[in-house]
Write a structure and sequence with these properties.
It is built from 16 helices and 12 strands. It has helices spanning 2-9, 100-109, 144-156, 172-191, 200-205, 221-255, 257-284, 308-326, 334-351, 357-377, 388-393, 441-460, 467-490, 497-514, 518-523, 531-538; strands at 17-20, 26-32, 38-45, 65-71, 89-93, 114-118, 139-142, 160-164, 294-297, 303-306, 417-421, 435-439.
Amino acid sequence: MKWMILLFLSLVLFSGVHSTEASGYHGVIAASDSNHDVIKKYCTTFDPKWLNISRYESNIQDAVSFPLKRVSRAFDGCGQVPTDLNGTAVVIIDHGDCSVEERAAKLLEKGVMMIVIARTDGMLNVTNVKQSNFSDVPIVLINANSYKSIEESASKGEIYLSFYYPMTHFDGNVLVIYVICIFCIVAGSYWSLYPANMSISEFWTTSPKPPLRLNMYSNDENDSDNESKGNLVTNLLFGTVIVGLMAGMLLLLYFAYKYFVFVFIALFCIISATGIHQLVSLFLMEFESYSITWNVSFTDNYSKPLAPFKIVVWLACFSIAIVWFVYRHVYGIWPLQVFMGICICLHIIRSVALPNFKIIAIVMCMLFVYDIFFVFITPYFTKDGVSIMERVATGSSGKPVFDSPQDYKPTEQIPLSIKVPYFQDTDVKVCSPIYGMIGFGDIVIPGLLVAYAAYFDTLAHPGKFKWYYFVSSVSYATGLIFTYIALNEMEVAQPALLYLVPCCLLGVLVTAFIRKEVKALWTGKAGFANPERLEEDEH
């Protein structure tokens, strides 16, 4: 299981804090009757280059409506344009031999105020179009189902169309995600100080004495100096391999998403079932019957002890994962997915032990660059201007750029994030349910640092206040606040490690500098900080 945890750890860096919402490419068209009562709202898509979002209203009450004049399958805007279109909205189909620029030029000459292109089965070229071609007139796309609905409404009487760009503001799901992240960091790190096979009552009544990590006790300065150069090379190589593996898998998913997504879903189910079992066992160990074993004979010469109750619990944990797999596309399944994600984060933070601050700092700094590159730099290389990280994290790799989410059946998403839906009622939901999410990597990677801090506190200063554990936890919480502030101000997906790495590393290093324990913390040799503890253990 260790190798599977390490493999999964290399996959959790589809990180970043963002919202899967109708922003950037999606807006809303409202169809209303002559009394301005809304009949229905439709999701629209557009290229941001087509229109300046700041010019349009964010709510239906303030949006300007225009009478719908043309909604006909025969009207594509390429041929002769009627003369009675001044001050109206026009729906055209995506067939025809002319470009978007040519269609728009003809319609603008007739005074059209809104151009809606209905995506049927045509292949309309909508690239390289800028708003300067259309003045202030919005040009948006709707899917085939929306087109049929508008056409049906128009056949019953006059209707008006209004375009607006709904925005999301602060929502309660941010607090939920924030609390979940802090809980996983704090609980998982503290849990790592105890053996795996212990009950919940022992957890509360027993002082932590974690298993030793590599080099935690040696205080031989000569050994440290002789090994430092080789260890640095080894740690750099380890960090490079881990980050390279993450980048390779991310690119693999970006270019071949539909082929590999189920592999990652299977890993999610297996690791989550293991994490659930580990968490449940913490409570079931209170019952003696849970550890009862039966000696089962398979042959005359071979028998094996089996724990029937443990087997039942394992099957129950895998059943939970199977239930999620079956209903993963159902909106109401998100609480179960969040629970499974929490169990995974706790399990990895508790099980993966890095030996010193040096290797943790190297890995986190490399991931700092990795996160920035795949969120901020890759949009300059992709056709649609969307980052590779966001495409993979939201499950939109391989989709046509300007199509509405309503055009698709539920898509497969890699469930490597804590995903909580927005609680506020917003028109953004016209396009699809929206979620706030944070990648497992933004919890697990800082969690490994906090777990190491807790280890170091326990070994270097047993029985005393765990300053490194406390400071690293507060630093993580502070970095997460900065992340959400940036998300709210910039309104684009944020690489959370951009804020978490500096906060966590600097917080711990400053504490070590004040306590004069930088060398002990850096090398992982607690004897430098607590020689008395070393002498006690030698005797």
